[in-house]
């Protein structure tokens, strides 16, 4: 999917959400509460969620003509003390004078056990699984499994912080493809600035434990939380700049945009 298509998708999503909000206005005195604002940015929220998110990578190290787009379709479902999340990427790679290549990336799933908490802080741990669904070599070509650890600190109504740490290692798949041992820490920083707006930073670091490649981005963006009936929407755009990197093909600059829907 080319950049104009992604922009059009986001505009359609925003328009759809605004029309929904107009047709389903909240009752008087029941706008977005402080708790709903926190929950809208909480990766461990105990609610069903459907998210469409997009990484638009406009510059890569060592590949000046290459561009990459990764559209993530993500669903989250709480089941008892477990939080289940599945993510399907749709990837487009273009550059070097060639026609863009589009297809599926590798499907990722994790199941986190959420430890009971009464103070707003949350902690979860559980296994993850990556299925080699990638087409046109847009995935790793390997079955992978590992561990996911997630923490989110939300005592404050103003600032929330947290981290998602995932480690995956390959155990089967295409013998002609490189083995995988990947560590991806993600840090969350959310600053509620009023009227449903927040300043956000949610860059995902990547460390290839097989060949030593790594990427450390810093993000700075803005989000807006809206509510229609019992549905909460979170729209955001977050430019991310790489501050440390090693290896050809690592993102130098990317923009993370999307909308999250919580039911």
From TrEMBL:
Signal sequence residues: 1-21
Per UniProt, the keywords (alphabetical) are: Signal
Please give the superkingdom of this protein's source. Bacteria
Name by which UniProt lists this protein: Neuromedin U
**In which organism is this protein found?**
Niastella soli
């Amino acid at each position: 999917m080319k950049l104009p298509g992604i922009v059009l998708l986001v505009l359609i999503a925003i328009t759809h959400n605004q029309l929904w909000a107009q047709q389903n206005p909240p009752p008087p005195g029941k706008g977005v509460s402080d708790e709903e604002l926190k929950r809208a940015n909480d990766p461990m929220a105990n609610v069903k969620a459907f998210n469409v998110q997009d990484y638009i990578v406009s510059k890569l190290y060592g590949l000046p003509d290459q561009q990459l787009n990764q559209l993530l379709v993500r669903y989250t479902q709480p089941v008892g003390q477990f939080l289940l999340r599945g993510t399907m990427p749709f990837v487009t790679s273009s550059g070097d004078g060639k026609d863009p290549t589009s297809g599926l990336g590798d499907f990722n799933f994790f199941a986190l056990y959420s430890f009971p908490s009464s103070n707003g802080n949350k902690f979860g741990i559980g296994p993850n699984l990556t299925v080699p669904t990638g087409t046109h070599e847009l995935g790793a070509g390997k079955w992978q499994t590992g561990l996911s650890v997630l923490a989110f600190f939300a005592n404050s109504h103003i600032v929330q912080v947290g981290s998602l740490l995932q480690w995956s290692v390959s155990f089967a798949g295409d013998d002609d493809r490189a083995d995988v041992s990947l560590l991806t820490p993600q840090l969350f920083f959310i600053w509620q600035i009023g009227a449903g707006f927040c300043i956000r930073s949610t860059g995902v670091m990547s460390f290839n434990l097989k060949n030593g490649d790594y990427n450390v981005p810093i993000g700075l963006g803005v989000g807006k939380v809206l509510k229609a009936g019992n549905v909460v929407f979170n729209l955001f755009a977050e430019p991310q700049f790489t501050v440390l990197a090693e290896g050809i093909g690592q993102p130098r600059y990317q923009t993370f945009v999307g909308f999250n829907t919580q039911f």
